[in-house]
Amino acid sequence: MYTCEPGFGYYIYSHRSPEVQLTRPTPDDTDWRAGCNVARNPDERAKALGFNPALTQALTQALTLNMTDPENHNLPKNAVEVRDLEKVYRGSNGAEGHRALKKVSLEIPRGSFFGLLGPNGAGKSTLINILAGLVNKTSGEALIWGYDTVNEMRAARRSIGVVPQELNLDPFFTPRELLDLHAGLYGVPKAERRTEEILDAVGLLDKADAYARTLSGGMRRRLLVAKALVHNPPVLVLDEPTAGVDVELRRQLWQYVRQLNEAGTTVLLTTHYLEEAEELCDRIAIINHGRVVACDTTANLLQRLDSKRVHVTLREDIDAIPDALKRFDVTLSEGRELEFQYQPSKMRSGEIVDAVRDAGLRFAEIATKEPELEDVFVQLTSMNEDPEAPA
Fold first, then answer.
1. Confidence band of 344 (pLDDT split at 50, 70, 90)
2. Which of 22, 33, 300, 373 could make an SS bond with 11 (beta carbons 3.0 to 4.6 A apart)?
3. How many domains does the chain have?
4. Are 133 and 42 in a shared domain?
5. What is the pTM of this model?
6. Domain check: are 93 and 31 in the same one?
7. pLDDT in tens, 139-164
8. Under 8 Å CB-to-CB from 345, ≥6 apart: which residues?
């Protein structure tokens, strides 16, 4: 039995069978590196391992099929599954412990670009650290690419790459050395390492041989992203990846991450830049006080907020809002700027336009504003007070 790593998961190839078999490995399978070598370099290693040419060709074809097809390859429906996950940090000196996560359940579909949002202290980093194996859960279950993070720890760790918030870099290594070292820890053969490709993608190829301590904060952040990609994980976690990165480099980073996602990599993003999440993510979960308060597609979340705005610019200044308009939720600014907020389920924007016209006011400009993710985020996090907080 040999375990192969085609880039979207881990499979076992049995050369005893007349047909190629692709199935999930168990934690006891120890020959995974040999299988990886056969899968990636079949022409060079087939004879050494005793494979006949027909089986070698069949294996090569099987591993170059569309690996996102679950019917052919038994891939998991969800890249990440979390069920009733709890984490309690013990208190010191007899103090009561802190429940960072409270029965959190999430499903992140394979191939999705998933956003995990929440205010500071909501539990996002705790959840990510549990997935990465850096924090022990108190109870519940967490699966990465179908592997339990505790019972199938090695397979789960190979299936995820994490970009942490903290800048955990060795200052005396160059970016090239750091990526080669990290790839070696994951067992990536030298001939298959993509060091220069990754450094070029994150804009650090010209700094490949400079010490990490000489890099700017934004460059160090991008180097963390590069480290997370060296073993080609099917799941990539980005924990505040663009903090301290300038606009142009941020655009370059997102372009590369989009390409990874389009190629099949599942991306889990946490960020405080809500406009980034709205633009990039196809699904979003909002966590507050250790609980998931919303989880849906981005479009459905935006529709959940029954609120729109109409901005009217008048031709002349007015001193006050006319009595005929006071029945609306309206504000006046700079003498001629009126902003109306209304509920589409109860009112049409045309009613506001008619009312302004009936009040004898003349338009210079009118515009409508759709709800933004920030509006939904503020509403959901402000209305969900922590029920366990002391009175």
1. confident
2. 22
3. 3
4. no
5. 0.70
6. no
7. 999 999 999 999 999 899 999 999 98
8. 306
